[in-house]
Predict the structure.
Amino acid sequence: MDKILELNNLQKFFSSQKAVDDISFSIDKGSIFGLLGPNGAGKTTLIRMITGIFYPDNGSIIFDGKKFDPINDVLKIGYMPEERGLYKKMKIGEQALYLAQLKGMSKKDAMERIIFWFKKLEMESWWNKKVEDLSKGMSQKLQFVTTVLHEPKLIILDEPFSGLDPINANLIKDEIYGLAQRGSTVIFSTHRMEQVEEICDHIVLVNLGKKILDGTVQDIKQQFKKNKFSITLQNEPTNTLSNVFTIDAQNNNSLTVSINNGYKSNDVLKHFIDTNQAIESFNEILPGLNEIFISLVEGTKAKTRAFEAVTV
């Protein structure tokens, strides 16, 4: 698949701090890509290099097959920061028009796109409101619209659901899917791992300026699985003594088990069949991204503390 963005050995230093330390990854066109990491991990610095706000100290950025041109390519990027980037005293319609024209749209084309999006997101009655009069959720919808108005090739959304109620969060989520289907690529940055699992095709996890994980959501969950299974029997179990597995939890006829070293899932099934216990369901339990995120970030911190102790 063609790549919209390739980062090659990017580095960015602030005084003696390595905010981004030799990070490389690529993003497929039309994908929804998760850029994850705890506070201070280097995500914002990466985004600012991708959008031309910062220049990398080392490494290269390839945008749509060519070396990134911060002057011209930034017009093909839409960036919705976590912090509100709106003029509080300006009327909403005027502000949307102004920001669209900054991205190179003619007044006529901008007006057509604004009307289209305002209708789609039920914002028509807001035209003459000022930003300072909007709720957090309303201003979030406006930021989303001003980010995508110019139909950018690359859309960067930092905590896009912040302040939105469930109905509007679903509305924006559907629009993100639609944008990807129409050819835009979305970089999605959030601390909400359940949203990442639902929305993203591929993720990169950074911490302390380094990339520590890179892959598809499903491949990563498979990589970190722990041989755990959920079993539902027709009746409460009558015989669970076995060398094959260890019971982690039990609730009536439902069990959570860990398979012991040297055995496979078929050995668990054989145990219950051999002991005449009917199985209603048998499913592998894959770890959630939240669990993986916490274990990797804590592991990185522990390694750093150990290194610092040795080098002091």
About this structure: The first strand starts at residue 3 and ends at 14.
